[in-house]
């Protein structure tokens, strides 16, 4: 890639943590196992994660992404995306597909569970999220009569509960911290008996990446956030940087970087949303400051790990035991035994699929 700047290069501050969270790691590895285990095509309901490079890689590997389970031919394997699916979608997939693997993130499952629990107890539920986002659609479908979608920017508006003493507040996991806190404070004033999660529904990865970008904003004059347009947590990172008073741009990769955004006197912060491959991060840094200074700004360590869906592990083990030699001589970078899942990461999975 041609250097964007031929003159003085800016200094790069690289956020840590950034990029893949444990839910995305699990989902990418799970779909890679599907590709390795079943004859193509393998179907996936909704984008496995909201990142164009990841989706392209899986499409090249024989995955067909669909927006309706009815588009999965009967008897084919299907994976359900990390964002969580509506109960009727899960049921329809179970009826239609030969094998259904649900790659929902466990932290999204927790919100689904709370949605059912609060609804069963007769609460009206404020669900703070973005209309049309896969995660919001799946969560609200757990209790459509009880839940009201509230946009974090528009606020509570005309929300009217049946009983002001029985109101619960749940949220999309990938909102901005400031979005959650604003609604929480408004709802708490209106409904003093408000029920909500002890910390918040924002997941650890969302919170950590937002804390890291705030730290970048203390020094950087411009921030690049790597991630796709439909990635909610990526967009939240851009909004957090703007609120901190720093120019910030979302880029999918190096081709989106505009050289007029900064010059050699700038300090350029770089971070990535939870579904953006680290390969893209390296490529963007190479474009901004090839061979230049990169200083890592770490706000915390992450060691969360989400195991592969149990049903997937069972299938893969069965195939391995039935087909002598299956996965016995993997190509370089291929996964080892599925029991050793922790020894293999999603970046290696994507490298295997040709993402560099
Ligand atoms: Fe799960 Fe959080 Fe990652 Fe979403 S961003 S997949 S909730 S860990």
If you had to describe this structure to a student in words, what would you say it looks like?
It is a single chain. With 356 residues, this protein is α/β, with parallel strands linked by helices. 36% of the residues lie in helices and 17% in strands. The chain has eleven helices and 13 strands. It has a five-stranded parallel β-sheet with strand order 11-10-12-1-13, sandwiched between helices. A four-stranded parallel β-sheet has the order 3-2-4-5, with helices on both faces. Helix 5 (134-140) links the parallel strand 6 and strand 7. Helix 1 packs parallel to helix 11 (346-352), helix 4 (106-120) runs parallel beside helix 5 (134-140) and helix 7 runs parallel beside helix 8 (232-243). The longest helix has 16 residues, at 22-37. It is flat. It binds iron/sulfur cluster (SF4). Iron/sulfur cluster binds at residues 21-24, 82, 105, 107-108, 173-174, 203, 205-206, 233, 274.
């Amino acid at each position: 890639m041609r250097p964007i700047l031929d003159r003085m290069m800016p200094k790069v501050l690289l956020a840590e943590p950034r990029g893949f969270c444990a839910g995305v790691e699990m989902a990418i590895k799970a779909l890679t196992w599907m590709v390795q285990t079943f004859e193509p095509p393998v179907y996936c309901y909704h984008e496995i994660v909201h990142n164009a490079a990841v989706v392209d890689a899986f499409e090249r590997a024989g995955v067909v992404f669909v927006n309706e389970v009815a588009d999965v031919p009967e008897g084919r394997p299907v994976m359900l995306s990390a964002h969580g699916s509506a109960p009727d979608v899960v049921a329809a997939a179970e009826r239609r597909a030969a094998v259904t693997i649900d790659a929902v993130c466990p932290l999204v499952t927790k919100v689904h569970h709370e949605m059912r629990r609060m609804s069963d107890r007769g609460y009206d539920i404020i669900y703070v999220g973005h209309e049309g986002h896969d995660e919001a659609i799946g969560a609200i479908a757990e209790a459509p009569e009880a839940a009201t979608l509230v946009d974090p920017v528009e606020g509570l508006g005309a929300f009217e509960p049946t009983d002001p003493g029985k109101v619960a507040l749940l949220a999309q996991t990938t909102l901005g911290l400031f979005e959650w806190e604003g609604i929480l404070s408004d709802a708490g004033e209106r409904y003093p008996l408000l029920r909500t999660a002890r910390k918040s529904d924002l997941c650890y990865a969302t919170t950590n990446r937002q804390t890291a970008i705030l730290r970048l904003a203390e020094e950087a004059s411009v921030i690049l956030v790597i991630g796709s347009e439909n990635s909610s947590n990526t967009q939240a990172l851009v909004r957090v940087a703007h609120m901190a008073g720093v120019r910030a741009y979302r880029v999918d990769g190096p081709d989106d970087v505009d050289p007029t955004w900064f010059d050699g006197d700038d300090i350029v912060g770089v971070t990535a949303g939870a579904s953006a491959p680290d390969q893209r991060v390296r490529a963007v840094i190479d474009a901004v400051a090839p061979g230049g200074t990169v200083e890592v700004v770490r706000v915390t360590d992450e060691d969360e790990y989400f195991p592969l869906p149990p049903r997937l592990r069972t299938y893969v083990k069965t195939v391995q035991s039935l087909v002598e030699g299956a996965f016995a001589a993997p190509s370089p970078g291929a996964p080892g035994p599925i029991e050793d899942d922790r020894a293999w990461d999603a970046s290696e999975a994507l490298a295997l699929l040709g993402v560099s």
